[in-house]
Amino acid sequence: xNWKLKKFDDLQPHELYAILRLRNxxxxxxxxxxxQDADEKDQGCxxxxxxxxxxLAAYTRxxxxxxxxxxxxxxxxxxxxxFRGGGSGKLLMQRSIETCIDxxxxxxxxxxxxxxxxxxxxxxxxIQSSAIYLEDxxxxxxMLRSAS
Length: 148
Prior knowledge:
Aminopeptidase, eight-stranded mixed sheet, 3 helices, alpha+beta, 148 residues
């Protein structure tokens, strides 16, 4: 996987298109959620992209502390259906956590996780920190990875 990390203003048009296309492919079409993905939060974030050849295979939005939550956050976690099953999701989360620490220091990291992925995120040190809530008709929980 070839990794690229960019702030929003540094994204090239083809990179931004690939990000939005992948997020729409998975979050809107595959998960059948009609929601406004372009939420006015991307502009203050870093965007971690994992490419295989010329295709965007994995992506996360890395959110600075104070932009959405008091904590840093990893959001819009997505892997392309074309590249699933080979460990790209695990590589993506590992790289996302490492990059958050590099960017923001040893800070707590908060995520809004789909409930069915709870064990996956627990394997990276995240602990459930909320009751189940519905977001776009999908059960979610907040999870926190402590800096300590």
